[in-house]
Amino acid sequence: MELGMSRGGSLASLPEPHLASKRSRRGAGDGSTRVIDDPWDWNAWQALLGEVTSRPFAQGVADYERFLDIYPTYAKGWKLYAEHAARTSSESGREAVQDYTKAQAHQLDDSVKPVTIYERALVYCKTNVELWKSFLSYLKKYGSREAIMKAFDQAVSNCGLEPSSHGIWNDYISFISKGHGGRGPEDQVTRDLLRKVYQRAVKSPIQNLETFWREYEEFENKGSNPDFAKGILAELAPLNKSARAEFRSRKYRRDGLVLNSVAFPPRGKPKEEEQSKLWKKYILGEASNPHELEASELSKRVIYAHELSLVCLYRYPDAWIEASMYFKEIEKLEEAEDVLHRGINAVPTSPLLHFALVNLLELQSRKEEARTCFENLIQKSPSPLVYIEYMRFCRRAEGVAAARKVFARARKDQHSCTYQVFVAAARLEYHVNKLPKIARNIYELGMKLFPTSVGFASSYIDFLWNLGEESAIKFLIERVLAELPKSVDSRRIWDKRMEFEFTFGDAKSIEAVEKRRAAALADGKSSGDEVLGLIARTTVMDLIPVTHQEMNAIKSRSTVPQSSGRADTNERGNTGGSGKDTSKAPLVIRPESCLHASD
What we know:
Residues 33-550 form the Suppressor of forked domain. By secondary structure, the chain is mostly helical. It has 5 domains: 1-143, Serine Threonine Protein Phosphatase 5, Tetratricopeptide repeat, CATH 1.25.40; 160-253, Serine Threonine Protein Phosphatase 5, Tetratricopeptide repeat; 255-345, Serine Threonine Protein Phosphatase 5, Tetratricopeptide repeat, CATH 1.25.40; 348-449; 453-599, Tetratricopeptide repeat domain (Serine Threonine Protein Phosphatase 5, Tetratricopeptide repeat, Alpha Horseshoe), CATH 1.25.40.10. The protein has helices at residues 22-27, 30-37, 42-52, 57-70, 75-87, 102-105, 114-124, 129-142, 145-159, 166-177, 188-202, 209-221, 226-253, 270-287, 295-312, 317-329, 333-346, 351-363, 367-380, 384-397, 400-411, 419-432, 436-449, 454-467, 470-483, 491-504, 507-521, 529-537, 548-557. Helix 20 packs parallel to helix 22 and helix 24 (454-467) runs antiparallel to helix 25. The protein starts with 21 loop residues before the first helix and ends in a 42-residue tail after the last helix.
């Protein structure tokens, strides 16, 4: 029996969870109705699971599957499911489906047999000690010696660093000692197996290490070669001592962590955010190698810490990316990729996870697979950012024509083609392809589609500024100011108009534009406007004609709030401002962009 610990065994690769009929939902109590309305209602799920465990197994399969599709890292749920299935099994371990009605029996396939449920569970919860104990207990009743031995080895490999895993280590040793399969405890093969397991156990930072060490000493001293026993014990004693110290310090490093918390997506709740920070702190603590472990042992600790965190942070894209980055750091690219695939299974619509996978594939020159990753994301969750990153990737990997095809495709997507896509395409043409004429054509097309987008107009103005076309800049700014509805916050455009006049105009023209701006944005002049305008006019980059204290005093005397400088849109041609009254905003002082022509 081989447990699937990689992306291939995910719930997403299984058939769709069985859905209970409306009749069964109505009869299932309040919990079932509530979880239909809100799949993240944890209290409702708890109530429903309480009902499910008391039903015949076949009647509960649908709800178990629905629950675990949403909370796949909740080990207790898998344990309830598998043990419920096991209670309906015959002595041979096969499902006793003969008592079910045909309507119930058709729902039961191989995926809901006890051993398969355990295997599916351990894909998600492979560090959970209690789940492994339950699985091993089941196998001892129905499994072969070979299957049990393999499961024990996988258990200690996956959760053997957990302090509470001492019970599994002890059961493993006991199972071998009893000589299952016809071998007695003095058989050489048995002794070799015991030595191997003992030596792994006494070096692991788990509970009861003193007891394990005493038992191991006794085991070696009973051998026929006292010199060998003395030498091997002397070699392992320092490692055992280090493991004891590691066990004690790990308890301190885990202080505050909720190891088996339910894996919700980020919800902005303070306690959940605090747990996320504590997990990061814990992983960094393990990676700092406080016990001066060898590289191979250190990587085991850090990987295990990441795996523990992913049980609780299953729906957090950054947790998966950080785990993948660690694998990349230790030059295990296959594992780094596998973690990202698992993360995408957990958060299938996350652009960030897909971008991380693309980056990893691109580094390995696997361009076709990277393209497939983008295609999958567009099918699941198209967005302006996805199209932009896809364009950039195609330009890097395949050239100009491929990037333009993506842009053409994006323009047909009415929901995802916002002004940012046009800006990104124009910048590619200008900066990368060195084709300013095509870039300008894209901007002109965008002006027709996004006539009220301050963000797009601002980008177009910056583009013309880079070209140094003075008359075109002024014409575009005036055109935008004339066409923008009064409901749109036009401060950013007026700031650019003032910026233009500071650079190319004279004192009279500057004053004239300042009066126009004041009339457009204010009902009348406010105290401080003139001073702030003069400061903006004479500021170059980070060089300001007042001290910081003087600047604070001037701002405090101003009777109007400072402009945020934000007026943007994510919708096709519509602004996305704050909706606040900004009609009395003074000139924005932005030293970093006041004068393009001055150094």
